[in-house]
């Protein structure tokens, strides 16, 4: 009987502390805290040519070209299953440490919300130096390269979701 009473008092105290913390004047008067929390859930959407930041990287999408059947040279390359969309992006390290840009963390979406992964093999052929998007980028430095997406011929990409790492929240860039 005594353990049950102690547990009940402990549970009541925790609930009271939780309720009291949420009902303070500070939380009610800040006004911006709820807005800021909602803003974190929805990524900022940029347009082609606008810089947008995620973590340690600042991304600027330069161009988007779809309908490409093959990337690489006549001797070596990669052929699209459907069509390649080549998205040229400038990436600047705005952090204080070196950061590796992983092409496989980048996503593209069609109007119906279908998600497409970056084709890292095709990306090797589309980038003349071959390793643009898997090198460490030191603070203050930037690289420009091409992310490649292999999508069906009848599909049009509407947005990108760019990430500084596989675990970041990402930022959106509208392609239309």
Walk me through what this model shows.
It is built from 4 helices and 11 strands. It is an alpha+beta fold and 176 residues long. It folds into 2 domains: 2-41; 45-174, Sandwich (Immunoglobulin-like), CATH 2.60.40. The strands form 3 sheets. It has a 5-stranded mixed beta sheet with strand order 1-11-10-6-7, with no helix packed on it. The N and C termini lie far apart (67 Å). The model is unreliable at 1-40 (pLDDT under 50).
CATH class of the largest domain: Mainly Beta
The helical percent reads: 25-40%
Could you say which overall geometry the principal axes of the C-alpha atoms support? Answer: globular
- The percent range for strand residues is 35-45%
Provide tags for this entry.
176 residues; alpha+beta; Immunoglobulin-like; five-stranded mixed sheet; four-stranded antiparallel sheet; 40% strand; disordered N terminus
Short structural summary:
Helices cover 25% and strands 40% of the residues.
Q: Strands, helices and their partners?
A:
Blueprint: H1 2-22, H2 25-30, H3 32-41, E1 45-47, E2 51-54, E3 57-72, E4 77-93, E5 99-100, E6 107-110, E7 115-117, H4 120-126, E8 136-137, E9 142-151, E10 157-162, E11 171-174
């Amino acid at each position: 009987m005594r353990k049950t009473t102690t547990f009940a008092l402990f549970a009541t105290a925790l609930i009271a502390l939780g309720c009291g913390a949420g009902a303070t004047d500070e939380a009610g008067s800040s006004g911006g805290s709820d807005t800021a929390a909602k803003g974190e859930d929805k990524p900022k959407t940029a347009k082609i040519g606008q810089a947008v930041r995620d973590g340690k990287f600042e991304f600027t999408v330069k161009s988007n070209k779809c309908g490409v059947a093959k990337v690489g040279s006549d001797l070596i390359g990669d052929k699209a299953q459907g069509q390649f969309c080549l998205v040229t992006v400038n990436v600047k390290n705005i952090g204080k440490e070196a950061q590796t840009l992983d092409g496989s963390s980048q996503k593209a979406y069609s109007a119906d919300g279908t998600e497409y992964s970056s084709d890292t093999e095709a990306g090797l052929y589309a980038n003349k130096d071959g390793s643009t998007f898997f090198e460490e980028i030191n603070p203050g430095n930037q690289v420009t390269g091409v992310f490649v997406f292999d999508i069906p011929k009848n599909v049009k990409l509407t947005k990108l979701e760019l990430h500084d790492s596989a675990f970041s929240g990402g930022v959106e860039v509208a392609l239309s």
